[in-house]
Amino acid sequence: MRRAAVLGTGQTHHRTRRTDVSMAGLCREAIERALADAGLGWEQIDAVVLGKAPDLFEGVMMPELFLASSIGAAGKPLLRVHTAGSVGGATAIVATSLVRAGVHRRVLAVAFEKQSESNAMWALSIQPPFSAPITAGAGGYFAPHIRSYIKRSGAPDHIGTLVAVKDRRNGALNPYAHLRQPGITRESVQASTMLWDPVRYDETCPSSDGACAVVIGDQRAAESSAGRVAWIRATSMRTEPTFYAGKDHVNPRAGATAAAALWAAAGIKDPLDEVDVAELYVPFSWFEPMWLENVGFVGQGQGWKLVESGETALGGALPINPSGGVLCSNPIGASGLLRFAEAAMQVMGRAGEHQVAGASTALGHAYGGGSQFFSMWVVGRNPQ
């Protein structure tokens, strides 16, 4: 397997409504920043991989067709990836695979969402054939899983509040974040409206317009790069049905097997000790302890204890979402790629005010659908 590395990353300023740009302009904003970060021109990109969540989120079918020119794909191979909310992570992995396979030297991965132009709640409430209807949106769907986690693990009620305060304060350090709340407190979170028990208003992600892009290159491209790169040590994707007999919504099998395969491929035996920082896909605050367990940082029932200890905060043993994560910016199609890009930025030393000092190994994580699609990568300052 050939080596691959992240040469550059770029993202937009994320907002509730980006009325200043079209979908094409939104993507272009992120792409141009990624190319500048990589020190490359459009002509040096060999192929483009576009990630996009369900088309109903904007009401535009197959947007890759009209976006081809604006994202630099005219005359080049263009692939569209769709794995629900994990699509950003899957997009990066597909681009990485093209480089590792020797098909292309440099591949641009870009993902976006412009939720303001449609209605995500309506889009999530449709009834696909042979499936149970989901009429409460994402929050109503996942709240029972959170309650199950609390009951199973014995976690105290304030854990979600701790995560919300941490991530929102982290987001205040990120100039691209949608929500930047340096003054948020446990009291203000607990006073916010209960939306889906036990998820309060300040414990849930926003609805954002935004885009993210990364440039991935082969070993020769990485070694000729003027700046530091993030070497992609391993990638992993796994899928399971939304519903099946024995489905564990608290600890999804696909997430656990994807993580196990990732650590094995990266040669990591003790993730909590060997990973310096992680960007986990946490759209509701309670998912942080759940995913800490699911990906194997700690054992079952121990995730909330790591949160409560303060070790997942900046300055802790394992900072989680120093960028503010999905709780601060959630352009759904791009959210997974943002997690991957932010992980790369950490080991490249380009995370600005939310940089984790000395970070040399980082995890990027994404999940989607009814906790059925999982995508992850490990990036490092040095090649494996």
Keywords:
two-stranded antiparallel ribbon; 11 strands; 34% helix; alpha/beta; 384 residues; nine-stranded mixed beta sheet
Kindly provide the radius of gyration, computed on alpha-carbon positions and rounded to a whole number of angstroms: 19 Å
Look at the structure and give the mean pLDDT. Answer: 95
Number of helices: 13
Alpha carbon gap, first and last residue: 12 Å
* Fraction of residues in H or I helices: 25-40%
Principal-axes shape call: globular
Strand order of the largest sheet: 3-2-4-7-1-8-11-10-9
Order of helices and strands: EHEHEHEHHHHEEEHEHHEHHHEE
Secondary structure tally: strands: 11
**Hey, roughly how much beta strand do the residues contain?**
15-25%
Seen as an oligomer or otherwise, the chain set is single chain
Unreliable segments of 5+ consecutive residues: none
- Tell me the structural class: alpha/beta
Protein model, in words:
- It is a single chain.
- By secondary structure, the chain is an alpha/beta fold.
- 34% of the residues lie in helices and 18% in strands.
- The chain is built from 13 helices and 11 strands.
- It has a 9-stranded mixed β-sheet. It has a two-stranded antiparallel sheet with strand order 5-6.
- Strand 5 and strand 6 (199-200) form a beta hairpin.
- The protein is globular and about 55 Å long.
- The protein starts with a strand and ends with a strand.
- The model has no long low-confidence stretch (mean pLDDT 95).
